[in-house]
Amino acid sequence: MRFSNGLSGVVVASLLLSVPAVRAQEHEHGDAADHAGAPSSDFLTIETHPEREEWVLSLGPIDLPAHTSHHALQQLPVQEGRVPFDMTVDAYRVEAVDRDGNPVPQDVIHHFNLLDPTDRELFLPIMRRVFAASHETPPVSVPEVLLGVPFEADDRFLVVAMLHNPTDRDYDGVHVRMVMNYNRSHVTPLYRMYPFHLDVMFPIGSKAFDLPPGRTSKSWEGSPAIAGGIVGMGGHLHDHAERLELIDVTEGRVLWRYEPDSGPDGHVDKVPVLRPLGRGIGFPIYPSHRYRVEVTYFNPTGETIVDGGMGSVAGALIPFEYGRWPAADPDDPIYAADYANVISGAHGTQMAGETAHSR
């Protein structure tokens, strides 16, 4: 099985209208602070284009002065929308445009994330992370006849974006968009595929950690909610990383390992977004087993690198039993803490599924 350009997390959407280019929502830019306590739809525009089989989520507008970091910028609040119809998604890309629709450099996109608050993550009872992208993420696609990420009509979704502007030019009225290609067929794809991720700093809060001089290892382990086959794996690392692993602790086996080919300065250029794993419907994992994600760094600088480390793996799972993905429990304290963390805007770190980003 070969994946075109890799696959970052992977998303499934339930969307498709029988009318051309329907715009669901469009609002003027207001005060983002008014929406800090709950998700809004004031900055989210939803479009479907049946002639191209595209579903487009657009956030904005927002002004981006030159040389503005994400810390100094008033970010757009978390946005909430509804899936317009049943569908599966087999490709997506992220782009930015100005108020006139002209392309804006991808460098302004720190990250863009699509979350499903109705379903849980595979290894934790938190909101399921569906798609993630940053300015380095290339267009993502999988064979549409074989694989697709499902969405069901009227399901809720959240969109989280962080922007900045490291360029020398001001950009006004910017919109950042996730463009997804969907399939409404009841025959294809042959397999429903669901994204999942694990992070060494699970469960809640910042996923970055300090790197003191010398070698540092971080890990987290747990068991999946359901059994299935992992059809692809990728990950996210920072500079000075030595390796990233997913380990079957129960059997004492390394399922996936990536050792970045970094230069003398420790720079990690990239991490595979989604590399095929196993054959057929993938490498099996089971709720009766424990699995560990582990990352190792070596800091040769002699000084502590603050927030210099991260370690996440992202993959795509085909469940062994056909049916709805396990639902989230909003009353679970871990879910509640994660939800509050996302809605409050404390999402300033990349989520699993994004390509490597040097610091």
Q: How would you characterize this protein structure?
A:
The protein is mainly beta and 359 residues long. It folds into two domains: 12-191, Jelly Rolls; 193-343, Sandwich (Jelly Rolls), CATH 2.60.120. It has one helix at residues 333-343; strands spanning 12-13, 22-23, 44-49, 54-64, 79-82, 87-97, 109-120, 127-133, 140-141, 147-151, 156-163, 171-183, 191-192, 194-199, 209-211, 214-222, 228-237, 241-248, 253-258, 275-276, 283-285, 291-299, 305-309, 311-319. Strands 1, 2, 3, 4, 6, 9, 10, 12 and 13 form a nine-stranded mixed beta sheet that branches. Strand 3 (44-49) and strand 4 form a beta hairpin. The longest helix has 11 residues, at 333-343.
